[in-house]
Amino acid sequence: MTENKENNNPIANSIIKNHMIWSMGAGLIPVPIADFFAVSAIQLDMIRQLCKVYDIDFKETEGKAIITSLTSSGLARLGARAIKFIPGVGSVLGGMTLAILSGGSTYALGEVFKKHFETGGTFLDFDPSRLKKYYDEQFEKGKEMAKKIKDEEEEIQQQVQDIKTTKVVEKSMSKDIVQKMKDLAELKKDGLITEEEFQTMKDRLLSSN
Predict the structure, then answer these.
(1) DSSP state of 123
(2) In a domain, 78, yes or no
(3) H or E element, residue 101
């Protein structure tokens, strides 16, 4: 039994993380009602998959009720959704906030069900009031994880944009200079040279082309 739990844990963690990220994407939908149902559907699917991992009979009605019971008190989430109605910044600011809240909520739900199933629990003995404190603790942890994921995502998007820009420049540059530029970027990424040193060396390369 213990060995099975150890084998199931990484799979459960992967399911939770994937659904957390999907929830964050759904949280960016610029329509409050649409994002609410999208996130709920993703959370329900996560519970369904966790049931398969721990060989638990999935109960859709009970699953929906548990999700509502654990997450409905999040007034901050409702507030974030309301921001979307503010013209201009609403759809962006509210969406970004809701993405983090949705990701945090999904992570917390996943951790609650994982803990419950690992201790031999099923839908029949699931007590939301008993697990609410644990959900709240994991919700805070989930929000921090969601923020980190979003920051990393924005950094990756910037890197992609930089690559696209670089490709345009590369057309007019020799392969030798292109390789040197890539080497410089790696040195900066590894912290071997500063941003100022990188810019200076890059300017020298470009001027020598």
Answers:
(1) S
(2) yes
(3) helix 95-118
CA max distance for the chain: 73
140 and 179 in a single domain? The answer is no
6, 8, 33 from 169: Cα distances, Å: 50, 48, 44
List the structure tokens of 110.
């996943």
Cα end-to-end distance, the chain, whole Å: 66
Domain around 198 = 173-208
Residues 7 and 40 in one domain: yes
Whether this prediction's pTM lies above 0.85 is answered by: no
Residues 47, 8, single domain; the answer is: yes
Contact between residue 51 and residue 58 where contact means Cβ atoms under 8 Å apart = yes
Residue 120: phi and psi, rounded to 5, are 90, 10
CA 116-122-128 angle, 5° bins: 60
Contact call for residues 101 and 143 (beta carbons, < 8 A): yes
Question: What pLDDT digit, counting tens, does each position of 6-43 carry?
Answer: 567 899 999 999 999 998 888 666 665 667 788 889 99
- Quickly count: other Cβ atoms within 10 Å of residue 118's Cβ: 15
Cα–Cα distances (Å) from 130 to 46, 75, 133, 136, in that order, read 21, 20, 7, 11
